[in-house]
Amino acid sequence: MKPLVVPSAEYLRDLWLKCQQVPLAWHQQWATVESFGRWLMQRDSMFFMVGEEAGLVYAEHVVPNSDAWIGIVMFDRQLKGREPEIHAALEEMFKIASRG
Q: How many Cα neighbours within 13 Å face the side chain of 45?
């Protein structure tokens, strides 16, 4: 588990394409790579990569010490066996959010 870092436009496009393959997690507002990139750059959101780029754990609309929308997207649709890493990402997000 590590914070998501988008080092290049190519990486962003690859991530955008991977997310499109998970219909339950896909939103029409991400119709373009640019709109997807803007979503990843929201000031009130956090994103962590799970495994060797197996998926994302994220928090949107974070209100420190109060609330957030949590999402988990596994590109291969497999959660089993990844629970410890997902829990670690969530724990880190709560720590960051509680700092305000």
A: 16
Sheet holding 67-74, edge to edge: 2-3, 46-50, 55-63, 67-74
pLDDT digits (tens, 9 = 90+) for 5-23: 999 999 999 999 999 988 8
User: What was the pLDDT predicted at 100?
Assistant: 59
Locate 100 and state its tokens.
């305000």
Residue 15 Ramachandran class (φ > 0 left, ψ -120 to 50 alpha, else beta): alpha
Pairing of strands 67-74, 55-63: antiparallel
CA distance 14 to 92: 25
For residue 59, CA distances in Å to 10, 34, 41, 56 come to 24, 20, 12, 10
